[in-house]
Design brief:
The complex is a heterodimer of chains A (319) and B (334). By secondary structure, chain A is an alpha/beta fold. Helix content of chain A is 31%, strand content 23%. Chain A has 11 helices and 12 strands. A 6-stranded mixed beta sheet of chain A has the order 6-7-8-3-9-10, sandwiched between helices. In chain A, strands 2-1-4-5 form a 4-stranded antiparallel beta sheet, covered by helices on one side. In chain A, strands 11-12 form a two-stranded antiparallel ribbon. The longest helix of chain A is centred in the last third of the chain and has 17 residues, at 229-245. The radius of gyration of chain A is 21 Å and the shape is globular. Chain B is mainly α. The chains are: A alpha/beta (319), B mainly alpha (334). The interface between A and B is large, with 43 and 32 residues.
C-alpha cells in the first residue's frame, strides 16, 4: 500500500541535521566518510590574510534595499541580505524570478535601480570594473561562442584585471594560472581548443578561469545546467572543496532544489520580486513554502545519507 | 603537447612575418603590370617614370585601403561576435559614402578643399551612421548583437538608396557615377590625400592593436567580458569609433569596396587563431596583399578598359570564402 501525500506530511519528515543521532542512519563506510566531512565546521569565517576586514565584522557582502531589472522593468524590489566570508550561498526560485538578474547586478553587468551593494565595506558602484574583477569572479551560463580559443588562452584571460594595456602576462601570471589548473585538474585540456571540449570539460575550464582571477567571491549561474549527474556532482564537489579548503565564498544560482540543499549552507528563495525566505536548507525547504512559490505539490523528506532535506515532486496522478 | 603548442606559436609568428615579405614583393611586382608595360631597365633609364610613379601610388592606396578595411571588419566581427559582420552589414560604408555625396552636392569638394572635406564628411557620415544604428538597437541601456545587425542592415540599405538617388539626380555636380560609388575605384586623385589616408590607416590599426586583449575577451561574450574587468560599453564605443574611422576614410577616396572586410579576417582566423594580437597585424598585411593583387587584375585583364574593383573582390573573395567554409566543415566533422 502506497502512503498518501497527506500521510507523509503528518510524519515528522524532517529533522535538523544539527541534532542528528547516528543510530538512525544506515551505516556504511561511505556514509561515515561523507558524514565526517559534513560535520566539519564551515571553513574560516575571517580571512587571516586581510586585516581590513575587522571593521566590517566579517561581512563579505551586504545587499541593502536593492531594486534591479532591465531599464523600466523592475524585476527584484527592495531586496536585502548579508553574506559572511566562507559561506556557500544558493539562490533559488521559479523561472524568470530574477536569480540571474541578481547575479548580474552584483557584477555591474546590469546597472541597478535603487539601493546599495556593499562588498568588503565598499560600495561596488564606486569600484572600477577591474578592481571588482579582482575580487568577484563569475561563471556564466554556458553559451556557444562563434570564435574559439585554446584553453590556455581562455585561462590567461583571467589575468586581464591584473594587467595594464601594454603589459603582457608575466611569469607570475603564468604560475597563478598553472596553480589553479592543478586545483581543478584540467592539465590534460590545456592545449585543446574550446570547441573540441565536452560540456562538462568546458564548464571546468570556465570555473578554472574564474579562479585564475583569484577572487574572494565566486558567482555561478547554474553551473551544472545540461550536465549529467556524474558531471554535476563532480563540479559541486569541486566547489565545495574550494569553499572549505581555499576559503572561497560562493554564491550560485540553482534550479535544482535538492542540489541546493546538499551543497549550500544557506539558501535565498526568491519569489515575485522579493526574498520569500532566507536561511539554512532545513529552514527554507519546507513543503508549504515550496508549494506556494512553485505552485505544485511536493513532499519533503530527509536524504538518508546527508540528512539534508530532499524535495520530491508529486505527479498529479498520485496526489 | 606543450612543445607542439610552442612550435605552432612560432609558426604563426613566422607566418605574419612572411605576409610582410609577400606584401613588399607584391607591391614591387604589381608596379610592372599595366596598360603600359614597364621593364626593369626602364626604371634605371627613367623611361615611363611618371607612369611608374602613378602606378606605385595607386598600389600603395590599394594596400592601405585593403589593410584598413580588413582591420575594420576584424574589429566589427569581434565586438559583434559574428563572423558575418563587417562595415557593409552595419551600414557604416553607406553612411560614409552618403556623407561624401552630400558634401559634393553642396559644392564643398572643389579640388583644394577636397583634402579636408572628403575624409571629414565620410568620417562624420560613418560615425553618425554607427551612432544611429547603435541607438536604434539599444534597449534599456544595453545593445543586443542581433538588434545591432538588424538595424545596421536596414539603415545601410536606406542610405545606399539615398546615395544612388542623389548621384542620379545631381548627375551634373558629381565627379563620380553610381558605379564608382557602389563598386569602388582605386585611382589616386591627389598625392597629398594618399599620405594623410596612409597615416590614418596605420594609426587606426595601431589603436586596434592596443585593444587586442579586449577584442579577444569581447569576442567570447559581453557579460563575461564585464566580469573579467572590461568596461564593455566604453570599450565597445572606442572600438566602434576606430573601426568606423578606418572604413570612412577609405570610402571617401575609393567608394564602397565589398568583401575585403569579410574575407580577409575570416581566412586569417582559419589559418592563425582567434587571438587578436597577431590577427590584427596579419589582417592589415593580408588585406593589403589581397587588394593590391585584385586591383592589378582590374587594371590589366581587359585592356584598355578597367573593371570596377568591387567586381574583382567579389569574384575572388566569394569562391574563396565558400572554399574555406567547406574546409572548416571538414575540420569540424573530422
Amino acid at each position: 500500500m502506497r502512503p498518501s501525500v497527506a500521510q507523509l506530511r503528518s510524519l515528522p519528515a524532517l529533522r535538523s541535521s544539527r541534532h542528528k543521532t547516528s543510530g538512525h542512519r544506515a551505516r556504511s563506510g561511505l556514509s561515515d566518510a561523507l558524514l565526517e566531512t559534513q560535520t566539519q565546521p564551515p571553513a574560516m569565517m575571517v580571512d587571516r590574510n586581510d586585516n581590513r576586514e575587522s571593521l566590517n565584522m566579517g561581512d563579505l557582502l551586504e545587499v541593502k534595499n536593492l531594486s534591479c531589472g532591465y531599464g523600466e522593468k523592475v524585476i527584484l524590489k527592495d531586496i536585502s541580505f548579508q553574506m559572511q566570508k566562507g559561506e556557500f550561498l544558493g539562490i533559488i526560485g521559479p523561472n524568470g524570478v530574477g536569480k540571474s538578474t541578481l547575479l548580474k547586478t552584483m557584477l555591474k553587468i546590469i546597472p541597478f535601480l535603487k539601493g546599495r551593494i556593499i562588498f568588503r565595506g565598499s560600495d561596488i558602484s564606486g569600484l572600477s570594473q577591474k578592481s571588482l574583477a579582482r575580487n568577484i569572479a563569475y561563471v556564466p551560463q554556458q553559451t556557444q561562442a562563434w570564435f574559439s580559443f585554446a584553453v590556455l588562452e581562455i585561462l590567461l584571460m583571467g589575468r586581464y584585471p591584473f594587467l595594464g594595456r601594454l603589459e603582457s602576462e608575466s611569469k607570475s601570471d603564468w604560475e597563478a594560472m598553472q596553480k589553479k589548473v592543478g586545483l581543478t585538474r584540467i592539465e590534460n585540456l590545456l592545449y585543446a581548443n574550446l570547441d573540441e571540449l565536452s560540456l562538462g570539460e568546458r564548464q571546468m575550464v570556465f570555473i578554472t578561469r574564474a579562479l585564475v582571477q583569484e577572487p574572494s567571491l565566486l558567482l555561478l549561474d547554474e553551473p551544472s545546467a545540461h550536465l549529467d549527474i556524474g558531471h554535476e556532482i563532480k563540479i559541486f564537489d569541486l566547489l565545495q572543496k574550494l569553499n572549505r579548503e581555499n576559503n572561497l565564498s560562493v554564491i550560485t544560482v540553482l534550479h535544482d532544489l535538492n542540489l541546493a540543499s546538499q551543497y549550500c549552507n544557506r539558501l535565498v528563495l526568491l519569489s515575485e520580486g522579493k526574498i520569500k525566505k532566507i536561511g539554512t536548507p532545513q529552514e527554507v525547504l519546507d513543503y508549504k513554502t515550496i508549494e506556494e512559490v512553485y505552485q505544485t505539490v511536493v513532499v519533503v523528506k530527509e536524504n538518508p545519507v546527508s540528512q539534508k532535506p530532499h524535495v520530491f515532486t508529486i505527479p498529479e496522478q498520485f496526489r | 603537447m606543450e612543445k607542439t603548442w610552442l612550435k605552432n606559436k612560432k609558426k604563426k609568428f613566422l607566418f605574419v612575418f612572411f605576409l610582410a615579405v609577400i606584401l613588399m614583393i607584391t607591391v614591387m611586382a604589381c608596379a610592372f603590370f599595366g596598360a603600359v608595360p614597364i621593364t626593369l631597365r626602364d626604371i634605371f633609364t627613367h623611361t615611363n617614370r611618371t607612369i611608374f610613379n602613378l602606378r606605385l601610388q595607386r598600389i600603395i592606396l590599394a594596400a592601405v585601403v585593403g589593410g584598413a578595411l580588413s582591420v575594420s571588419g576584424l574589429i566589427f566581427q569581434a565586438i559583434l561576435r559574428n563572423p558575418l559582420a563587417d562595415p557593409y552589414i552595419l551600414g557604416v560604408s553607406s553612411g560614409g559614402g552618403l556623407g561624401v555625396v552630400i558634401v559634393m552636392v553642396l559644392g564643398l569638394s572643389v579640388l583644394k578643399l577636397a583634402i579636408l572635406t572628403l575624409p571629414l564628411s565620410a568620417f562624420l557620415g560613418s560615425v553618425l551612421t554607427i551612432l544611429l544604428v547603435y541607438r536604434l538597437a539599444r534597449i534599456g541601456g544595453r545593445v543586443p548583437v542581433q538588434n545591432l545587425l538588424l538595424s545596421g542592415v536596414i539603415v545601410g540599405t536606406i542610405f545606399t538608396n539615398i546615395l544612388v538617388f542623389i548621384v542620379w539626380f545631381f548627375e551634373d555636380r558629381m565627379t563620380r557615377g553610381v558605379i564608382w560609388w557602389l563598386l569602388g575605384n582605386l585611382d589616386v586623385i591627389e598625392p597629398k590625400l594618399l599620405l594623410s589616408i596612409s597615416l590614418l590607416g596605420i594609426f587606426g590599426t595601431a589603436a586596434g592593436f592596443l585593444f587586442s586583449r579586449e577584442l579577444d575577451i569581447l569576442s567570447l561574450g559581453e557579460e563575461e567580458a564585464t566580469s573579467l574587468g572590461i568596461e564593455v560599453e566604453k570599450t565597445k564605443r572606442t572600438l566602434l569609433f576606430i573601426a568606423s574611422l578606418l572604413t570612412a576614410v577609405m570610402v571617401s577616396v575609393c567608394g564602397i569596396i565589398g568583401f575585403v572586410g569579410l574575407i580577409v579576417p575570416h581566412t586569417l582566423r582559419l589559418i592563425l587563431s582567434n587571438e587578436h594580437r597577431l590577427l590584427i597585424l596579419a589582417c592589415f598585411l593580408g588585406g593589403a596583399i589581397f587588394l593590391v593583387i585584385s586591383d592589378t587584375f582590374c587594371r590589366t585583364i581587359i585592356l584598355p578598359a578597367e573593371i570596377p574593383i568591387g567586381v574583382i573582390t567579389a569574384l575572388i573573395g566569394g569562391p574563396l570564402f565558400i572554399f574555406l567554409l567547406q574546409r572548416k566543415k571538414k575540420i569540424l566533422f573530422k
